[in-house]
Amino acid sequence: MSSNTAQRRVLLAAPRGYCAGVDRAVIAVEKALEQYGAPIYVRKQIVHNKYVVQTLEKKGAIFVDETEEVPEGSIVVFSAHGVAPSVHDEARAGRLATVDATCPLVTKVHKEAVRFADEGFDILLVGHEGHEEVIGTMGEAPDRIHLVDGAEDVANVQVRDESKVVWLSQTTLSVDETMATVGELKKRFPLLVSPPSDDICYATQNRQVAVKQMAPETDLLIVVGSKNSSNSVRLVEVGLEYGAKAAHLVDFAEEVREEWLEGVTTVGLTSGASVPEVLVEGVLEWLAARGYEDVSTVKTAEEHLVFSLPKELRRDLRAEAAGKL
């Protein structure tokens, strides 16, 4: 390698990794397993991270794609990405006990969609087709919500009344990309209403800001995260857009390739909002073994938000606690 060992360094983004919604969802599955024992069924991946899913499977969680796969009378946890009302109906029909681990910030978008639909608006949902969060949000008002998958999709949008149009967004998008799409929507629909508060979640924004700050100094950006994690994929894109010479997404340290380090002095390291810190530590150890022992933190925000557990668990947890007094 052509870089001088003494110069090699790692810029470690902060904040990175778990957000409040992911932490809440993972704990919800763990608490359900503790309280009720295995198996606990989980509809879809609780969060989009391979390691988290594998860890919970070892503890007794069973992940299914559809509610109908869950045996009657069982307990099912809904993932952090949220579900359409029809999924709740399916669970009732299957006599399932449900724990709704939908991130409260996703729930906020669902409630906005319902309110604007009730007020007669057409809703332009900026998001990626097929993403679980988008499917869940669109299910709240399928006749009123139109998916806009990027600026190039704007020309295809048809609405009932151009004076009653609002935009909402998936919570895990690139801020820059979303605003570019909204800019095109405003050109087409000058009376377009914005959501009462930003739909892109604080954690997604904070992780992107940290990457933007360190990208210009970065020869190689490593993002720890799974390929189906929207916010992790966006971090790779943002890094390249803001000056990182190369950027790669990995689930585990062993996926980092030696040839990526050729000629590299500065490595940037961050992780998506569904990634436990142990995976970042693994990459740091891998890099240190190859001469990248100098680690500097690039901190752009402090995060202190914590969400309470899903109400179903809180109610049962209190009853359990009371029984032990």
Automatic annotation (TrEMBL):
Pfam families per the UniProt record, alphabetical: LYTB
Reactions mediated catalytically: isopentenyl diphosphate + 2 oxidized [2Fe-2S]-[ferredoxin] + H2O = (2E)-4-hydroxy-3-methylbut-2-enyl diphosphate + 2 reduced [2Fe-2S]-[ferredoxin] + 2 H(+); dimethylallyl diphosphate + 2 oxidized [2Fe-2S]-[ferredoxin] + H2O = (2E)-4-hydroxy-3-methylbut-2-enyl diphosphate + 2 reduced [2Fe-2S]-[ferredoxin] + 2 H(+)
Positions bound to isopentenyl diphosphate: 48, 81, 131, 229-231, 274
Requisite cofactors: [4Fe-4S] cluster
Binding site for dimethylallyl diphosphate: 48, 81, 131, 229-231, 274
Keywords from the UniProt entry: 4Fe-4S, Iron, Iron-sulfur, Isoprene biosynthesis, Metal-binding, Oxidoreductase
Binding residues for [4Fe-4S] cluster: 19, 103, 201
Cofactor note as given: Binds 1 [4Fe-4S] cluster per subunit.
Residue sites binding (2E)-4-hydroxy-3-methylbut-2-enyl diphosphate per the record: 48, 81, 131, 171, 229-231, 274
Biological or metabolic pathway of the protein: Isoprenoid biosynthesis; isopentenyl diphosphate biosynthesis via DXP pathway; isopentenyl diphosphate from 1-deoxy-D-xylulose 5-phosphate: step 6/6; Isoprenoid biosynthesis; dimethylallyl diphosphate biosynthesis; dimethylallyl diphosphate from (2E)-4-hydroxy-3-methylbutenyl diphosphate: step 1/1
Catalytic residues identified in the record: 133 (proton donor)
Coiled-coil regions listed: none
EC number: 1.17.7.4
Enzyme class name: oxidoreductase
PANTHER family in alphabetical order: 4-HYDROXY-3-METHYLBUT-2-ENYL DIPHOSPHATE REDUCTASE
Function: Catalyzes the conversion of 1-hydroxy-2-methyl-2-(E)-butenyl 4-diphosphate (HMBPP) into a mixture of isopentenyl diphosphate (IPP) and dimethylallyl diphosphate (DMAPP). Acts in the terminal step of the DOXP/MEP pathway for isoprenoid precursor biosynthesis.
Family: Belongs to the IspH family.
Protein name: 4-hydroxy-3-methylbut-2-enyl diphosphate reductase
Organism per entry: Kitasatospora putterlickiae
Species classification: Bacteria, Bacillati, Actinomycetota, Actinomycetes, Kitasatosporales
